[in-house]
Amino acid sequence: MKGLEISFRDIEHSDGIEQLIRDKAGKISSIYDSITGIRAVVAMPHNHSHKGKLAHVSLEIGLPGETVAITNDNHDNKAHEDMYVAVKDAFDVAQRKVRKIHEKRHDLKRRAGSAATPEIAE
User: Which Pfam family is one of this chain's hits (predicted)?
Assistant: First the structure.
């Protein structure tokens, strides 16, 4: 997919995480062809020692006229100690947000189309 940018912060580069992001980005781009680009930032910030290290995943998904920002920062979710789970969860949230925007735009186009066609009088 073109327009994909992946950054790693406070964590070493992982080929497995990068491939997962590429797969998830490819899937969401194939469903919604209006996506112009995706920027993913994966990080393992230094958290408090009693909570352990929890993964942080941020996504920016470019759509015509707007950017959808997803900050999957679940500091209470122990499953996010696993970077793979954090990436999957972030893309799940992204897909729901993009679908909602897509449906809203489609509905507005449909309404505009039906209002523009005059009724034929018999």
Answer: Ribosomal_S30AE
**Residue 70: φ, ψ to 5°:** -125, 120
Q: What's the CA gap between 71 and 112, in Å, rounded?
A: 33
Instruction: Encode 34-92 in three state secondary structure.
Output: CCCEEEEEEECCCCCCCCCCCCEEEEEEEECCEEEEEEECCCCCHHHHCHHHHHHHHHH
Q: What is the pLDDT of residues 14-43, one digit of tens each?
A: 999 999 999 999 999 999 888 999 999 999
Domains of the chain: 4-116 (3.30.160.100)
CB atoms near residue 84 (< 10 Å): 14
Asked if 14 and 6 count as a contact pair (C-beta separation under 8 A), the reply is no
Angle at 121 between CA 115 and CA 122, to 5 degrees: 150
Provide the 3-class DSSP secondary structure of residue 94: helix
> For the chain, how many residues are written?
122
